[in-house]
Amino acid sequence: MGTETGLNRRPLASRDRPWAAMAVRLLLRTPITPNQISVLSIAFSAIGAWALVAAPRAPWGYLVGALAIQLRLLCNMLDGMVAVEGQRASSVGPLYNEIPDRVADTFFLVAFGCAAGLTWLGFVAALLAMFTAYIRVLGGSLGLAQDFRGPMAKQHRMAALTLGCLGAFVESFIAPTRYCLQLTLAVVTLGALVTAARRILAISSELGSR
Fold first, then answer.
1. By the 8 A CB rule, do 44 and 103 touch?
2. Most buried of the four, 3, 89, 172, 203, by CB within 10 Å?
3. How far apart are CA 204 and CA 189, in angstroms?
4. How far is residue 77's CA from residue 11's CA, in Å, rounded to a whole number?
5. Which of 50, 40, 69 is nearest to 166 (CA)?
6. Taking the CB of residue 203, how many other CB atoms lie within 10 A of it?
7. pLDDT tens digit string along 120-158?
8. Domains identified in the chain and CATH numbers
9. CB under 8 Å to 174, separation ≥6 — which residues?
10. Residue among 189, 71, 184 nearest 130 (CA)
C-alpha cells in the first residue's frame, strides 16, 4: 500500500472500528510493512482458491474459502491503515496496492467458477473485475478522483462470494447441486458489468463538464 489517500482511498466503514485500530497498533509494534501485508493477501487467496476447487468433493472447502476471502479483505484494509495511519507508505506502494488485488480477485473468481461447474464464467467474472479496476485507475490517471462505486466493487464481490460459499456449504448437505455457487457467480458477473458501465459513464460525464 502506498500513497492512496483522500479521494483516492477506498471508503471503508470498518476502518473506524475499535478492533481495526487495535490491530494496526499491534502491527506497528512489528517491522512488518504495508507491502508485505499486501503480498500476504495473495497467499490467503491462493489457499482459498485451492479450497474452493476441492470443495465439491470436500464441502469444508467452502468454509475455508469464505474464511480466506475475509482474511484477504482484512489484509486489504490493514495494509492501507499501516501505510497511512502508521506512516509507513513506500514509493512502490501503489504497485503493491493494485497488483496483489488483481491476483487475488482472479484466484477467487476463477476457482469459484471451477467449484460452480462454470469455469468459463469464472474467467469472465475475473476479466470484468479487472476491467472495473482498470476503469477506476484510468479515471485517476486522467486527474479525476478514483471511482469506487458499485454495485460490484471489490468489497461487494467478496461479500457475495463469502455468502455464496456459506450457502453452498449448507446446500451440499441438502442436495448434490451447486445452485448457490452458480447464482452467486452470475450475480457477481452481471454486477461487475453494470459497475464498469457506471464508472465509464461517470468518467465521461466528468470529462465532458471540464
1. no
2. 89
3. 23
4. 10
5. 69
6. 18
7. 999 999 999 999 999 999 999 999 999 999 999 999 999
8. 6-208 (1.20.120.1760)
9. none
10. 189
C-alpha cell at 74: 482484512
Please name which of 58, 57, 192 lies closest in space to residue 132, comparing C-alpha atoms: 192
d(CA 20, CA 40): 17
The one-letter amino acid at 12: L
In whole angstroms, what is the distance from residue 127 CA to residue 84 CA? Answer: 30
- Whether residue 94 contacts residue 59, with contact meaning beta carbons closer than 8 Å, is answered with no
Q: What is the CA radius of gyration of the chain?
A: 18
Range with the poorest average pLDDT among 7-16, 36-45, 85-94: 7-16
HSE-up (13 A, CA, CB side) for residue 69 = 27
Amino acid type, 200 = I
Q: What does the block give as the cell for 42?
A: 495473495
The C-alpha cell at 156 is 461487494
Each residue of 137-152: b (16+ CB within 10 Å) or e?
Answer: eebbeeebebbbebeb
Q: State the amino acid at position 183 in one-letter form.
A: L
Cell of 24: 494496526
pTM for this predicted structure: 0.91
* Identity of residue 169: F
